[in-house]
Amino acid sequence: MSGARCRRLCRTYYSEERRSAAHLPVSTTGPDMTDVIVIGAGPAGAFAAHRAADLGARTTLVARDEFGGMAANDGPVPVRTLAHAARLLREAHQLDRYGITGDGFRLDYPRLLARVREVVHDVRTQSDLRDRVDGLGVTVHEHAGTASFVDPHTVETSGGLRLHGDKIILCTGGVSRPLTVPGAELTHTHSDAWALRDVPPSMLVIGGGATGAQVASIFTAFGSRVELFERGPRILPTEDDDVSAVVAEAFRERGMVVRENFDAIESFDKTSDGVLMHFTQNGAPASAEAALVVVAIGWTAATTGLNLAAAGVETDERGFVRVDAYQRTSVPHIFAAGDVTGRLMLVPQASQSGFIAATNAVRGPAVPMWDQVSPIGSFTDPEYAQVGLTETKARQEHDVIVATVGLDAATRPVIDGRTTGFCKLIVDRTSNQILGCHVVGERAVETTQLAAVAMTARMRVDELARIPLSFPTYAGIVGRAAYIATRRLEQDAGRDLNEAS
Ligand SMILES: Cc1cc2nc3c(=O)[nH]c(=O)nc-3n(C[C@H](O)[C@H](O)[C@H](O)COP(=O)(O)OP(=O)(O)OC[C@H]3O[C@@H](n4cnc5c(N)ncnc54)[C@H](O)[C@@H]3O)c2cc1C
Ligand SMILES: NC(=O)c1ccc[n+]([C@@H]2O[C@H](COP(=O)([O-])OP(=O)(O)OC[C@H]3O[C@@H](n4cnc5c(N)ncnc54)[C@H](O)[C@@H]3O)[C@@H](O)[C@H]2O)c1
Q1: Best exposed site among 36, 152, 221, 430 by fewest CB in 10 Å?
Q2: Domain-embedded: residue 118
């Protein structure tokens, strides 16, 4: 039986059975009445709709565009595919060093974009989340247009749908924050990468956060001359200071111009070859020109068009939808989850908050969003990742010891010729618990997951040091740092921690 046919057959039976099991009232209004309307079908919306239906609620999911949201169609999935191409180029540059000779390599950007589309399609069709959502009887309206409130219980879409819901969950995600200086219409965002016909010869990237660093790194690998402009004193300002410094240094070694601490962008002018940006640095006027300007100065809530005022939903001073610990907005029957709330803007957090919002929407506000250890990382060259406190923050709050191991001192990075970077472990001297882990270098994002698990398990650093991690691996460097930290703690305490435990 085809997936679609199975979905149709299962839908009615499944939802009625679950409604009765959950003791939900039988709906008494017209056919467009539903228990829960979810707006936005990114990770937050998809998980919210799945959870609401799983709890027996009659659920409708409204998506302006495709199921999967920005995450699947414009964010991590396609951008990670570009990052993989950048990685392949890095690997190709190593071939000669390992005795493999052949002709040079050339990037065919249109073919890469075809591969990106293929990956996006495959990820979407291979994910079983859509099947599970359909199987639970959720009514999914894809390409429904922009949804907006008519009143606190009614939502209309620009595609002509009109829905009435007992509970509503907002999962509309975010959008790139635009610059508001003269000529800003000449700039682009990371989303425009999908429409480029070729790799631009030069690029200015404005904003040295997660998105800007990733775009700058990928297009440097593709051969663009990239200048990265960060207004603050260092790129990746939410990372540990050492991470920012080592990544910036590596970017410069790869030929990128990294400009930190400039004053302000004044304007943009069109030129025959691209765009000229006027800015000030140390009070003096300056300019930079490139074929393309990409702006990545932050992410703001996608609430334009929602007509939140008609429902009375409040936003905070940054424009994000204000929610309490139960993901409830200022209007008790309206919930919100994911990027639109402005909390840690990542896929796992969006999915989890969607789950919590739906649980509370259906069962009443009972389950608060929990504090959790959240690993964060990005697929630049070199990669960087973090979990827990930065060294600066940890020192403000704890008596700490810090153990740092360079990748050039570990076996696997030497074998692979990938010795840029380090692993830093920050440990509380009193409890011996791990407060933070910061990694720059090959496979940094994967490596950091190990520290995240150890921290979640509230493992002491000496317990982590005792795990015989496989050799030679990148993850092994966390064990090495844990061993160094343990030795220091032992020296300080004048005793063997293994014997004591
Ligand atoms: C370049 C980039 C790379 C990233 N890389 C990573 C990564 O590697 N790992 C990671 O964890 N996170 C990454 N993120 C962040 C991640 O993509 C987001 O945190 C995540 O997508 C948020 O999910 P969401 O469901 O809240 O919103 P979204 O995924 O943005 O989905 C919201 C959906 O709602 C729709 N919508 C908006 N308004 C309306 C409306 N009025 N009516 C109907 N529909 C509407 C939108 O069109 C969209 O489809 C990245 C982000 C960017 C920009
Ligand atoms: N790999 C990943 O996990 C990944 C990748 C991309 C984005 N994201 C998510 O998306 C969110 C948004 O990322 P983002 O990079 O768009 O925003 P961001 O807020 O993380 O970074 C914006 C950067 O731009 C700088 N900036 C602000 N105004 C500026 C100006 N006028 N000129 C120059 N620089 C300016 C800021 O100082 C900051 O460094 C992140 O918080 C993250 O959660 C995650």
Answers
A1: 430
A2: no
